[in-house]
TrEMBL record:
Its cofactor is pyridoxal 5'-phosphate. InterPro entries: Ala_racemase, Ala_racemase/Decarboxylase_C, Ala_racemase_C, Ala_racemase_N, Ala_racemase_pyridoxalP-BS, PLP-binding_barrel. It catalyses: L-alanine = D-alanine. The active site is at K40 (proton acceptor), Y268 (proton acceptor). Residues 247-372 form the Alanine racemase C-terminal domain. The modification N6-(pyridoxal phosphate)lysine is found at K40. Catalyzes the interconversion of L-alanine and D-alanine. May also act on other amino acids. It comes from the Bacteria. Pathway: Amino-acid biosynthesis; D-alanine biosynthesis; D-alanine from L-alanine: step 1/1. The lineage of its organism: Bacteria, Bacillati, Bacillota, Bacilli, Lactobacillales. Keywords: Isomerase, Pyridoxal phosphate. This is Alanine racemase. SMART domains: Ala_racemase_C.
């Protein structure tokens, strides 16, 4: 997809906000505990390479991604820090990962067996770094029983192509005020890890929510994601221990303004009909940019005033009701502050009945990312 540089619509990423959020967490961590910044999905839409750079400056010592290509993007950009791929990779890519010093998440011993065969053939200069994932209740990937885990650990101990670098789990409800399920997962984690005779280099369980609200579990590394971007992982359910600064704003400009009279309709399906004479502005952004069609009826800011989105959000444009005529080129704020008003990703997510994670990741590459500070 091309980047729309000839259109006045852009995501603005505040580097200082990213830095402050990440540094605030690094400062809170117990001594010996490292922060790996989670930059999967293009840094939650903020730009993986740019976020990784700021995170490094703010004290992050490694990175987590979801897929191998995201790790390779960081290596190509010159990052030499440890990188852990959180998803299951293909065993045939084990030699590439070993060569690039990219750590693999392993969820089953048959993966180790398959990877070992490829590694034995390719003979990379370094072993593949392996983090064993434990499924303590997330129900996604990982070893579930002490027998499965013991088998994997013995396999690692007897195969020089592989190095047991880490062990981890992921909590399903760390962002919830109800800690019942969280505590069950902690208990399962403790039972499983009790079979380890030696601890690997990295032992980690914490996403943002766990690190913010259950720091006692942190062990020696945290996988810090959404809170680094200034977004509260619980939505509004639990206050963060420090002020999170949202790093992302979204701005555009009016490209057209016109008057409609009572009875005239706006947009596909003619779902909005003016009841009186009104000014209608057109903003060049739509669902092809990740601005959800469900946002019909939501609002943007023009000249510090709240303006409703009227009619259906189109693929590339949307229409808003203006208090009066405005010149073409007038600034429109879709996320962020204008005067006394702020529109947050959280409000947008509430309106769309989803979570801010989904909206942040959903902004497509057609939107230029512009970095400030
Ligand atoms: C295994 C794992 N760890 C850490 C994270 C980061 O989570 P958060 O963005 O809530 O901090 C994720 C994100 O989905 C994940 O899948």
């Amino acid at each position: 997809m091309v980047v729309g540089v000839h259109r006045p619509t852009q995501l603005v990423i505040d580097r200082q906000a990213l830095h402050d959020n990440i540094q605030a967490e690094v400062t809170r961590l117990a001594s010996g505990c490292e922060l790996f910044m989670v930059v999967k999905a293009n840094g939650y839409g903020h730009g993986a390479v740019q976020v990784a750079q700021v995170a490094k400056e703010a004290g992050a010592t490694g990175f987590c991604v979801a897929i191998l290509d995201e790790a390779l993007e960081l290596r190509a950009a010159g990052f030499n820090e440890p990188i852990l791929v959180l998803g299951v990779t293909e065993p045939e890519d084990a030699p590439l990962m070993a060569q690039q010093h990219i750590s693999a998440t392993v969820a089953a011993t048959d993966w180790l067996v398959a990877a070992d065969a490829y590694l034995a053939l390719a003979q990379p200069t370094a072993p593949l770094q392996v983090h064993l994932g434990l499924d303590t209740g997330m129900g996604r990937i990982g070893f579930k029983t002490t027998t499965e885990l013991t088998t994997a650990v013995s396999y690692l101990a007897t195969h020089a192509t592989l190095n047991f670098e880490g062990i981890f789990t992921h909590f399903a409800t760390a962002d919830s005020p109800d800690e019942t399920y969280f505590k069950q997962q902690v208990a399962k984690w403790q039972t499983l890890t009790a079979v380890l005779k030696e601890r690997p280099r990295y032992v980690h369980v914490s996403n943002s929510a766990t690190s913010l609200w259950h720091a006692a579990c942190n062990d020696n590394m945290v996988r810090f994601g959404v809170a680094g971007y200034g977004l509260n992982p619980s939505g509004t359910a639990i206050p963060a221990p420090y002020a999170l600064k949202p790093a992302l704003s979204l701005t555009s400009q009016l490209v057209h303004s016109k008057q409609v009279v009572a009875g005239e309709s706006v947009g596909y399906g003619a779902t909005y009909t003016a009841q009186q004479t009104e000014w209608v502005g057109t903003v060049p952004i739509g669902y092809a940019d990740g601005y959800e069609r469900r946002l019909q009826g939501f609002h943007v800011l023009v000249d510090g005033q709240v303006c409703e989105i009227i009619g259906r959000v189109c693929m590339d444009q949307l229409m808003i009701r203006l208090p009066h005529d405005y010149a073409r080129g007038t600034r429109v704020t879709l996320i962020g502050r204008d005067g006394d008003h702020v529109i947050t990703l959280q409000e947008m997510a509430d309106y769309c009945q989803t979570i801010h994670y989904e909206l942040a990741c959903g902004f497509t590459s057609r939107l230029p990312r512009v970095y400030r500070h």
